[in-house]
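Hi support team,

I've been running sequence recovery on a batch of backbones for a student project. Most finish fine, but this one hangs at about 90% for roughly twenty minutes before it completes. I'm not sure whether the input is malformed or the queue is just slow. I've pasted the structure tokens below so you can try to reproduce it. Let me know if you need the job ID as well.

Thanks,
M.K.
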């Protein structure tokens, strides 16, 4: 607060504002502490460049030794302000305390500089040059903004009345292509949603309610993302005709691949460069490129991938079409080559290509196997020794033999020869079989042992002197006899 002092008391006052134009009112809030009773307060206001002063008064009784507030409204006369040679002048005032009810007798303070400017009139805000920018760099590259892609920014400098420091910009509203943005709120303009010549306007309002407007247009180029609308691939092989000419025919076992592709890149100011890349087998290469968008139409193109794609390998190709802004990908695969019967150096394939390698030769069958006569050593059981075709963990072949037990009384056992020379039996890989006890009511898997209320009965199988005497001993428990049974043994031989 500022202070003015008279002979009978002090006056503290708030300066309401820094500028006051003709016809406007500013109210001075005065806190007064008089030494004798007063009946009001007043201001004698002087304006530089204007002869004399204007008197402004307000009634309000304040007793001696007390304190109170009196608000004095000040409204400058336009006719008097018209005397100024310039548009504004500094304001000073002498504060008065009135000692009579008619407010004609007063004691005054020395003149005080109010720090205010009196104005004949106020100036409306002025909009400077409005400049739009693009944070993506697209405008710098293409020379224009791009629909849906440019991230717009705007610079819109505004100057307010230079004689009124207390006047600021209250609002700045930009309208672009029919959409309004409050610049004072920091609203993002985003990307233009349309192409063509877009109209814009800017309206600025200052804190006194005065306005200014600016308008113009901006050019925006159309854009759409790249697309791959169709993509296919097929294996092929070269065919040499009787006349020596070469043609290329689709072949499921071909070791080269050709592609058919339809796509498009949007042209933009002759500057939307693009590339078509293909990735496969861990590598990426550029197949085609252009300096500006265009329609792309490839049919049975053999140049994209010229390397061999082995017939026994499934291969996936990823095509990527990329322009200045975006990219799009599409994937296509070729399957392993098919075959009815295929013979290779390290394998045989039935219903497919052979998959064997030098280190792992193999026969591969893609179709279900129907062994109508059985598979010797696998599904055929015989009382003669059969090679199973299996290999034990030590690398030796596995053999199989089935022995018929016949009838055996309870508590008896029998020995059965495996039928190989003494000492030739290697490892016993497995033993299995079934026994039908007397009465024929059920079959027991081997071996089986049971202790019940009717006495002990069971089945016991032993191979005596495994490494020397290749015999199987089968015994029945004391309670049950054997009507018939079978034992199958799988084994290796020391002689292998």
């Amino acid at each position: 607060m500022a202070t003015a002092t008279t002979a009978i008391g002090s006056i503290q006052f708030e300066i309401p504002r820094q500028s006051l134009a003709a016809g406007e009112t500013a109210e001075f809030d005065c806190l007064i502490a008089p030494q004798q009773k007063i009946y009001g307060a007043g201001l004698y206001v002087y304006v530089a460049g204007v002869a004399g002063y204007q008197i402004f008064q307000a009634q309000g009784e304040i007793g001696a030794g007390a304190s109170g507030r009196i608000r004095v409204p000040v409204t400058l006369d336009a006719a008097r302000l018209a005397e100024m040679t310039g548009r504004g002048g500094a304001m000073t005032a002498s504060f008065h305390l009135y000692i009579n009810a008619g407010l004609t007798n007063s004691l005054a303070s020395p003149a005080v500089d109010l720090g205010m400017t009196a104005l004949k009139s106020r100036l409306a805000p002025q909009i400077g040059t409005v400049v739009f920018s693009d944070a993506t760099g697209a405008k710098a590259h293409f020379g224009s903004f791009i629909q849906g892609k440019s991230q717009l920014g705007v610079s819109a400098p505004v100057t307010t009345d230079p004689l009124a420091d207390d006047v600021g910009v209250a609002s700045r509203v930009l309208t672009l292509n029919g959409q309004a943005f409050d610049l004072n709120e920091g609203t993002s303009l985003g990307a233009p949603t349309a192409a063509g010549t877009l109209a814009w306007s800017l309206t600025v309002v200052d804190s006194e309610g005065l306005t200014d407007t600016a308008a113009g247009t901006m050019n925006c180029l159309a854009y759409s993302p790249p697309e791959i609308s169709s993509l296919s691939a097929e294996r092929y092989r070269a065919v040499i005709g009787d006349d020596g000419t070469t043609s290329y025919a689709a072949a499921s076992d071909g070791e080269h691949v050709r592609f058919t592709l339809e796509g498009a890149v949007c042209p933009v100011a002759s500057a939307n460069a693009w590339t078509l890349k293909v990735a496969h087998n861990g590598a990426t290469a550029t197949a085609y490129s252009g300096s500006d968008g265009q329609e792309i139409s490839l049919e049975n193109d053999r140049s994209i991938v010229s390397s061999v794609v082995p017939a026994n390998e499934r291969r996936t190709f990823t095509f990527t079409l990329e322009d200045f802004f975006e990219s799009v990908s599409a994937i296509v695969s070729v399957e392993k080559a098919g075959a009815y019967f295929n013979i290779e150096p390290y394998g045989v394939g039935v219903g497919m290509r052979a998959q064997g390698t030098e280190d792992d030769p193999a026969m591969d069958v893609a179709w279900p196997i129907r062994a109508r006569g059985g598979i010797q050593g696998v599904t055929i059981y015989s009382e003669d020794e059969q090679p199973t075709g299996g290999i034990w963990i030590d690398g030796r072949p596995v053999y199989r033999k089935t022995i018929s037990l016949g009838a055996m009384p309870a508590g008896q056992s029998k020995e059965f020869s495996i039928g190989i020379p003494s000492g030739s039996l290697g490892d016993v890989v497995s033993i299995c079989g079934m026994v039908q006890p007397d009465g024929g009511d059920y079959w027991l898997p081997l071996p089986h042992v049971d202790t019940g209320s009717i006495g002990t009965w069971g089945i016991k199988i032993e191979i005596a002197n495994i490494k020397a005497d290749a015999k199987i001993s089968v015994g029945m428990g004391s309670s049950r006899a054997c009507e018939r049974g079978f034992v199958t043994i799988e084994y290796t031989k020391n002689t292998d």
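--
Follow-up from support: It reproduced on our side and the slowdown came from queue contention, not your input. Helices lie at 78-81, 138-142. No action needed from you.
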